[in-house]
Amino acid sequence: PTTAAIIPAAGSGSRMGLDHPKQYHLLAGIPILVHTVRVFTSASCVDMIVVVVPAERVESTVNLMADHGLSGANLQVIAGGERRQDSVKAGLDSLNAGVDIVLVHDGARPLLAPDLIDRCCDAAIEYGAAIAAVPVKDTLKKGGPGGRILHTVDRKDLWQAQTPQASRLSLLLAAYDMAGEREVTDEASLLELAGTDVHLVEGSETNIKITRPDDLIIAEKIMQNHET
Ligand code: CTP
Ligand code: MG
């Protein structure tokens, strides 16, 4: 099946507090987004990649990718939207009708292995939709008024969602149509709302999303560890 990867990277990184969007920040000397795109070029299931960036950065990102040897007809850079889901939608709208499977992966999540991408693809082919996730390992508390614990949430069967999130393109398009203007933080939420079964694929503890400044320190360490 023809598989496209959409990489939303059009956010501003407000929680990171840098003077530029975090996906352009250097990790081991290379922009985070370059790391992410590189991993997708080495996954065997991926036929084409659409990188979605802030409108004013489309041209500079094409150049940035080319500087790192990433260019060609299979790599597109397009402008995103206001919310993550709008950026993903822009990516979906840019795909041609021949695409069967679509993968969505955060640009700010550079530390995944190509193998996880392939396993998400395989699961989407088998089940229709699948996401990477890891079992929750901490004890979870439901907080209430005044910062008081209301109760402990049983973590059995609880998973922390990651990306890649993979599905048949037709299923995700239908889910977008059904959701209208509803706000979500991942594609699986849309598929769940549309009644589509989404399969869990075991991800990796090191597949972190770089969100806050501490994550950069952790990501540098993980990167060093991968290299040795
Ligand atoms: N993203 C996007 N378009 C948006 C918002 C986010 O493509 N309008 C992307 C981000 O660039 C990131 C991914 O979605 O790669 C996950 O979002 P998040 O970690 O929340 O990044 P930001 O929105 O940039 O960060 P923040 O929420 O702290 O502002
Ligand atoms: Mg955000």
Structure description:
The protein is globular, with a radius of gyration of 18 Å. The protein has 228 residues and is an alpha/beta fold. The protein is 34% helix and 24% strand. It has a 7-stranded mixed beta sheet, sandwiched between helices. The chain has a two-stranded antiparallel sheet with strand order 2-3. It has a two-stranded antiparallel sheet with strand order 8-9. The chain has one domain: Spore Coat Polysaccharide Biosynthesis Protein SpsA, Chain A, CATH 3.90.550. The mean pLDDT is 97. The chain contains 7 helices and 11 strands. Strand 2 and strand 3 form a beta hairpin. Magnesium ion (MG) binds next to loops. This is Bifunctional enzyme IspD/IspF. Its cofactor is a divalent metal cation. It catalyses: 4-CDP-2-C-methyl-D-erythritol 2-phosphate = 2-C-methyl-D-erythritol 2,4-cyclic diphosphate + CMP; 2-C-methyl-D-erythritol 4-phosphate + CTP + H(+) = 4-CDP-2-C-methyl-D-erythritol + diphosphate. GO terms for molecular function: 2-C-methyl-D-erythritol 2,4-cyclodiphosphate synthase activity; 2-C-methyl-D-erythritol 4-phosphate cytidylyltransferase activity; metal ion binding. In the C-terminal section; belongs to the IspF family.
Cofactors, ions and other ligands in the entry: cytidine-5'-triphosphate, magnesium ion
User: Judging by the overall fold, what is the CATH architecture?
Assistant: Alpha-Beta Complex
Count of domains: 1
- Dominant shape: globular
Helix content: 25-40%
As for the CATH topology, it is: Spore Coat Polysaccharide Biosynthesis Protein SpsA, Chain A
CATH class descriptor name: Alpha Beta
Oligomer: single chain
